[in-house]
Amino acid sequence: MNTKNDRLIAEDDLVVFCVTVLRKLGIPSDEAALITDSLVEADLRGVHSHGVIRLPIYVQRLEAGVFNPRPSIRLVRETRTTAVMDGDNGMGQLVCRRAMELAIAKAADGDPAWVGVRNSNHNGTESYFAQMAIEKDMIGFCFTIGGINHVIPWGGAEGMLGNNPFAIALPAAEELPVILDMACSVAARGKVNVAAARGEPIPEGWCTDSAGRPTTDAYEALKGFVLPIAGPKGYALATTIGMLSTMLSGGAFGRDVTHLYDDFERPQNIGHLVGVLPIVSFVEVDEFKRRMDKGIREIKGARKRPGVAEIFLPGEREHRTLVERRKSGIPLADGTIDELQVLSAKFGAPLRLLP
């Protein structure tokens, strides 16, 4: 969603800017391009909470030495269909992509494959990795632990959980793939960052302040907690996704999780779990996709309640936003632009906004 205070930037110009900044911080060109692709795609899809708004904190952590710009990613445990990968404190997008590439390669003979990851970092949107499987006629999964404990256990008064997002991507034939990407909180904390950057309030029911009181003030919300979806059910989901993301690989969980924005001394040891299901192991690919198309069309053709023009499948609106923004430009909040202009001056990276 655009606001009157947003400024537009072309996709190519934003890519050049981000790659330039990351290269100046010691990240190899091809890896800087991969990380940038993840960030810019998020903004193209309207998921600004995981777009270039994250670049300034990445820069701070790289400069502080708590992100490794040139990691030696290695396997520490492996079977024919599973592996545990150590990311050597590398950028999360790079580490997670390597993990998904490995899972896809292991599943090439038709068996499902899973890769657990430790010693990684914030990896952007989970759908970016889950949808890699679609191109190989596989169903993709990606789970991660959050990099900030800003969700309280149900009945608790202390942040012990992240919002622990996950994604599932299912291919279709003529219809768009179905791509679920969600956090276990009512809203991702990054959306609160975006609201703060725009000087806007947040909706009721998203967050509390540091004292646990409901708030619509984005700045106060950043000092407090985000609320789990559906109360105790969201808390249970966040706990389970967090454990899946860490317990198999040795990633940090609970009090071992450090704070992405506040702790510049300790690596975060973020954990992920990625996996793929080759469709051909269960059913012929064409038959699966035919049934997917049929299911999608039935949902979209369902009777609509008054005032609703169209029913959307998961990922559909984001895809439409991406197509439109590739033509018209990417809107960024004034606060985000201000932070990027500071980086532009510091690293000599031109930030060319559209008129």
Q: Would you kindly provide a written description of the structure presented here, covering whatever features stand out?
A:
With 355 residues, this protein is α+β, with helices and mostly antiparallel strands. The protein folds into 3 domains: 1-64 and 315-355, Hypothetical Oxidoreductase Yiak, Chain: A, domain 1 (Orthogonal Bundle); 71-185 and 231-300, Ribosomal Protein S8, Chain: A, domain 1 (2-Layer Sandwich), CATH 3.30.1370; 189-227, Wheat Germ Agglutinin (Isolectin 2), domain 1, CATH 3.30.60. It has 11 helices and 12 strands. It has helices spanning 11-24, 29-44, 55-64, 92-106, 127-130, 189-198, 218-221, 232-246, 285-300, 316-328, 334-347; strands spanning 7-9, 74-78, 82-86, 113-120, 138-144, 166-170, 178-182, 207-208, 214-215, 225-226, 270-278, 330-332. Strands 2-3-4-11-5-6-7 form a 7-stranded mixed beta sheet, sandwiched between helices. A 3-stranded antiparallel beta sheet has the order 9-8-10. β8 and β9 form a beta hairpin. α1 packs antiparallel against α2. The longest helix is centred in the N-terminal third of the chain and has 16 residues, at 29-44. 50% of the residues are buried. The mean pLDDT is 95.
